Amino acid sequence: MGLNLDEKKAVVAEVSAEVAKAQGIVVAEYRGLEVGSMTELRAKARKSGVYLRVLKNTLARRAVAGTPFEKLAEQMVGPLVYGISPDPVATAKVLNEFAKANEKLVIKAGAMPNAVISAKDVKARLDAVARATHRPAARDDAGPGREVRADDERGAGAIRAHPRRGPRREGQAGCGRLGAARFHTDSTSSDSGETKCP
Q: SS3 for 59?
């Protein structure tokens, strides 16, 4: 038995409230998906803060009408489940990962405010986010044998890092096998106040 008019209005109002705070919507076809699998998907979505609901497309079109997601209405064909969230990555991730293990769930399209995204682009954006997340953090220090320069390589201010020697000023000779990092401050200092190596 279908929904009566009041029930339809309630559904549209509920979905409209989710769309109003959304930054991402993903729609997927669930044709042939078992009830147990859908229950599992709902649990995963809930855990990730994603609003997930199977909707009649006519009601979904009403919910997005006049919003930044209204162009998604063109993709609302077939039996669809809607994932809606303030976090567009979370929405796409939940549905995409579930689809990998359940071939009967097929992502059809996605949307961000004022932009409709193809199923292929939904997956590509997820891959880009994954690469950025796992990219090693940049290091400020130089590794052995690399040269670090201060003062924008303006000559005397340049400092070199050597694999077996401490930092030294360009033009200054190294001080023994321990390098310039080992200084002596007693009677070996010159009259000019310059510190010499032992």
A: helix
